[in-house]
Automatic annotation (TrEMBL):
CDD domains named among the record's database cross-references: HTH_ARSR (cd00090)
Replication initiator A N-terminal domain: residues covered: 28-86
Family matches, as Pfam families: RepA_N
Protein name as catalogued: Replication initiator A N-terminal domain-containing protein
Amino acid sequence: MINISEYLTTQTPLPPFLPYPRFLLELDLSQTAKMTYALLLDRATLSQKNLWIDERGFVFVIFTICSLAEQLGRSTVSVSSALKELDAAGLIERRRTRFSSPNHIFVKIPNVE
């Protein structure tokens, strides 16, 4: 259990957190899909730093469904559904790799107008 004991001050160090893009608030997606996207986007920043790119120069993430489910505290069925939602919304692309290897997940960023 987390012990909550301090008020936020100007000197309080922040705990680790996920970026949550504002555009997700406007989309008709499940909360699990939105949190999955935020987690994938966070992981994509690590992939950027490690230069995990494909032949097109696009950054990809490797994240198994089981690992996503564990991190999100959801079932693998819920995470699979969330990934399908994100794919249908055009926010991710999954590409198969070798047999029995996790897919490469490409996180897409919508055009902001």
